[in-house]
Amino acid sequence: MSAAHTGVPAPLDTRMPTPVPVEEHEACPVSDVLRRIGDKWSVLVIVLLGQRRHRFNELHRGIEGISQRMLTRTLRGLEVDGLVHREVFPTVPPSVEYSLTPLGRTLLEPLSALAGWAVEHHGAIERSRRAHAGAADRDGG
Asked: Which residues pair with 88 in a beta bridge?
């Protein structure tokens, strides 16, 4: 019976050269995307925009601790990657709204799956961290 029929995901093809050449790691599409969404703020912005369109100040108020400069940089990076659309309205002063592009919307499902995995396994990860911290303390380092 195939993985598609059992409900169990097929294993990922994880064959890689050893050692992994720096150029290959740098050019890897997975590494490239993880650099973008793995930063401190991008996932929060994507999740908020997944709910609805937001103006800049709404996003700024919705993410505690992000500076205006960092929010601007995050939005620009997501826009450059084609994940966020920026729309300027000809008002005085001009108003700007941000929304996910169709490509950005396709990221919501894998992010949701990753979030579910993290919640499900967080306890095990924390237990492992405590065990390793205790072992390091006993070993002196």
From this structure: 96
